UniProtKB/TrEMBL annotation:
Any Pfam family hit: DUF4442
Protein name: DUF4442 domain-containing protein
InterPro entries membership: DUF4442, HotDog_dom_sf
Organism, as annotated: Gemmatimonas aurantiaca (strain DSM 14586 / JCM 11422 / NBRC 100505 / T-27)
SUPFAM superfamilies, per database record: Thioesterase/thiol ester dehydrase-isomerase (SSF54637)
Amino acid sequence: MSTTYPAAGATLLANWERLHRLPFGKRLFSWAVGRTAPYTGTIGGLYTDVRPGYARVELRDRRRVRNHLASVHAVALVNLAEMTSGVALLTALPPGVRGIVTGLSISYTKKARGTLVCETHTESPRDVQANTVQAVDAIVRDAAGDEVARCTVQWRLSPPSSAAA
């Protein structure tokens, strides 16, 4: 028996459109994403732009996300990249297609300090007829625009008929 799943990306986009213009709307949207994926919410990233296949998230540099070297912790950076790639990809998926992370690869190119911005652009998969893998890149930059990390997130996409598998 096939299970039909709602289009998570459509729900995300509808929530974004409903909230982002309101006072504290971006914070409320970000909080809701963090409630849906609780570990994602632990770093306190703020979604500042969401469109189909695109997401931009800011992360404030504060003690909670720092390491012993007074820079943003490597795991906070990979969490930031994963949460950004997830919303970008989910908003690009056709209805019923589901995605789950199966791999992460990240390169740290500079100490991450100050407010960071992570951006992801991804294409909508054309026709998901079988389980497939889509690589999504997320770039983290500091306030000067310098790249501090580059992450590739591998997403396994399942077609509507096998999404429960």
